[in-house]
Amino acid sequence: MLKIENLHVSYGGIQALRGISLEVPDGKIVTLIGANGAGKSTTLRTITGLVKAASGSIQWNGEELLGRSIDKIVTSGIAMSPEGRRVFPDMTVLENLKIGAYLRRDKEGIAKDLQWVYDLFPRLKEREWQLAGTLSGGEQQMLAVGRALMSRPKLLLLDEPSLGLAPLVVQDIFSIIREINRQGVTVLLIEQNANMALKIADLAYVLETGRITMSGTGAELLANEKVKEAYLGKHKK
C-alpha cells in the first residue's frame, strides 16, 4: 500500500501541493482527476523522487520514500510511465524495453517479462526492430507503459496515458490498464479523460489547485453532480 500524508510541494515560491493525503491500496486502480495545473503530475513526480517535497510523508509498504534515491524507489517496486511518453526515438522498440529493466540482473526474468509485455502489446512484438520515433502515438504510449513494466513493478504510475490519442486507441489503452491490474499490478492513474478513468477506478480523488477536494469510489464520483459538471460535461452519460 502507498500512503501519502499531508504532502506539501513548492516550485519557486508557488505551492503545487498543499497538504494532500491519499491511499493506494494493493491490487486496486486508483485515479487522480483534476484540471491542468492542479498538481496531478507533481504528485507522481514526488512519489518517484523526481521532485523534492517540502514536508509530509510518502510511505510504501510502511517504509518512507521521501529522501530516497530514484533507483532505490524503482527497485522497491514502483515504476512510472511519464506524460508525453518520452520514448527514446533513435532506439528500437526492443532497446527501449530493455532500458526499463536496467536495474535488473536476472536475465531469465527479463526474458520472461519481455514476453509478458509482448503478450500485452502484440504490436510491439511486430515492431521489435523498428525505431521508436517512427511509431504512431498510440504505439509509443504502449511502449512507454511496456518499458515501465520491464522493471516488474508492484505499483505502476501512469501520467496521462490517453493524452493526444484517437478515441479507439484510448479504448485499447484502458483495456490494457485493466488487464495489467488483473495480473496483479496496483495502478495509480492520472488522467484528464475523467470519464474513462472513473469507469475503471476502484478509488478516485479530485485534485484542485493542490488540494484534494473529493474522494470516493470511481462509481460514486462518476455519479456525483459536481464532478459531472466540472469534469464530465453535464450531458455525458
Walk me through what this model shows.
This protein is of the alpha/beta class. The chain has a single domain (24-50, 72-232), classed as P-loop containing nucleotide triphosphate hydrolases (Rossmann fold, 3-Layer(aba) Sandwich). Helices cover 38% and strands 26% of the residues. The protein has ten helices and ten strands. The protein has helices spanning 40-47, 70-75, 93-99, 107-120, 122-126, 137-149, 167-182, 194-200, 218-223, 225-232, and strands spanning 2-11, 14-24, 29-33, 55-60, 63-64, 78-81, 155-159, 186-190, 203-208, 211-217. The strands form two sheets. A six-stranded mixed β-sheet has the order 6-7-8-3-9-10, with helices on both faces. A four-stranded antiparallel β-sheet has the order 2-1-4-5, with helices on one face. Strand 9 (203-208) and strand 10 form a beta hairpin. Helix 3 packs parallel to helix 6 (137-149). The radius of gyration is 17 Å and the shape is globular. The mean pLDDT is 93.
